[in-house]
């Protein structure tokens, strides 16, 4: 097995609340198998914003297997393997938290992150969301369906290997100056930049630059992008945003039926926060148990 692409969906703000898992198996640079499981999450409840993202309901998973039961079916396929995810810090933290919640031993795996790799590649894109890369490579994506996400993650990793004439996930990771992350019984090492510099030839081939692509993050397209994520929601923006213009985000929320608030109250549905979020808002949000979504997480949700 060359590597396995993985994607989780979660039911609520608790990182261990996996409600779906998709796995795509790659061997000899080809997808050879796929696997999808709905999961009865722990704790068993759905936050509205998560449900809006992936569309999974309590009724769909009420009689589904719990994570420990699903894990018993897949653990031997995963143990000792190389894995990859798009935004791996999220998916592998879900795995760790879910395993810990059921007091299950960690597998021995190494992993890479296609999101971080593509940020180094230099493609002429405004962002490297899975949906953006799927459009770039003309791939079919049912975003935030765990199986579809894992398939596309595997496909874009294979596409990049083909573009740079690389064989294997570890060679791809090394080529762009990263070091594989790892999970084991003895500890966890995050996917990160290695000490060596990215080689000078690690610049995207000209053939890639010639692909036709329409930026979702083009301002006009962004403002006209439709979502149900904010409809009838009372939302607060707090902190400084790095990827989205704050005024454009306010317009976007208004156009899609959301209502902005200036102060946190029991009527607030959620807070979108950037760097240096005001401590008073944060404390009151914790006190009132109001969901707080980072700018990066919100951007990811827009494509779900």
Based on CA inertia axes, which overall geometry fits? globular
Gyration radius (Cα, Å) is 20 Å
Helix fraction bin:
25-40%
| Order of H and E elements | EEEHHHEHEHHHHEEEEHHEHEEHEH
Question: What is the CATH topology assignment of the largest domain?
Answer: Nucleotidyltransferase, domain 5
End-to-end separation? 29 Å
How much of the sequence lies in strands comes to: 15-25%
What is the annotated CATH architecture of the largest domain?
Answer: 2-Layer Sandwich
> How many domains, in number, for the residues?
2
From the helix content, strand content and strand pairing, which structural class follows? Answer: alpha/beta
Low-pLDDT parts are 197-203, 209-217
Largest sheet: 7 strands, mixed
Number of strands: 13
Number of helix segments? 13
CATH class designation of the largest domain:
Alpha Beta
CATH superfamily of the largest domain: Ribonuclease H-like superfamily/Ribonuclease H
Function: DNA polymerase III is a complex, multichain enzyme responsible for most of the replicative synthesis in bacteria. The epsilon subunit contain the editing function and is a proofreading 3'-5' exonuclease.
Pfam families: BRCT, RNase_T
GO cellular component, one term: cytosol
GO molecular function: 3'-5' exonuclease activity; nucleic acid binding
């Amino acid at each position: 097995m060359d590597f396995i692409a993985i994607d989780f969906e979660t039911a609520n703000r608790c990182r261990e609340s996996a409600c779906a898992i998709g796995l795509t198996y790659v061997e000899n640079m080809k997808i050879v198998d796929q696997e999808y499981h709905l999961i009865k999450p722990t704790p068993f409840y759905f936050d509205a914003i998560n449900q809006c993202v992936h569309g999974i309901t309590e009724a769909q998973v009420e009689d589904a297997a719990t994570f420990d039961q699903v894990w018993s079916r897949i653990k031997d396929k995963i143990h000792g393997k190389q894995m990859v995810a798009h935004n791996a810090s999220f998916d592998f933290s879900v795995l760790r938290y879910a395993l810990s919640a059921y007091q299950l031993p960690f597998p021995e795996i190494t992993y890479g992150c296609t999101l971080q790799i593509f940020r180094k590649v230099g493609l002429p894109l405004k962002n490297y969301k899975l949906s953006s890369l799927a459009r770039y490579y003309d791939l079919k994506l049912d975003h935030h369906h765990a199986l579809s996400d894992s398939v596309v993650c595997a496909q874009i990793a294979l596409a990049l290997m083909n573009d740079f004439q690389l064989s294997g996930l570890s060679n791809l990771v090394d080529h762009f100056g990263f070091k594989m992350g790892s999970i084991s019984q003895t500890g966890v090492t995050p996917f990160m930049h290695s000490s060596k510099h990215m080689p000078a030839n690690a610049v995207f081939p000209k053939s890639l630059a010639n692909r036709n692509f329409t930026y979702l993050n083009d301002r006009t397209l962004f403002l006209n992008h439709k979502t149900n994520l904010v409809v009838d929601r009372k939302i607060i923006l707090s902190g400084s945003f790095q990827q989205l213009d704050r005024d454009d985000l306010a317009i976007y929320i208004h156009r899609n039926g959301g209502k902005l608030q200036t102060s946190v109250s029991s009527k607030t549905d959620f807070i979108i926060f950037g760097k240096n979020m005001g401590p008073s808002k944060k404390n009151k949000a914790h006190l009132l148990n109001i969901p707080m979504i980072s700018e990066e997480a919100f951007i990811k949700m827009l494509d779900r």
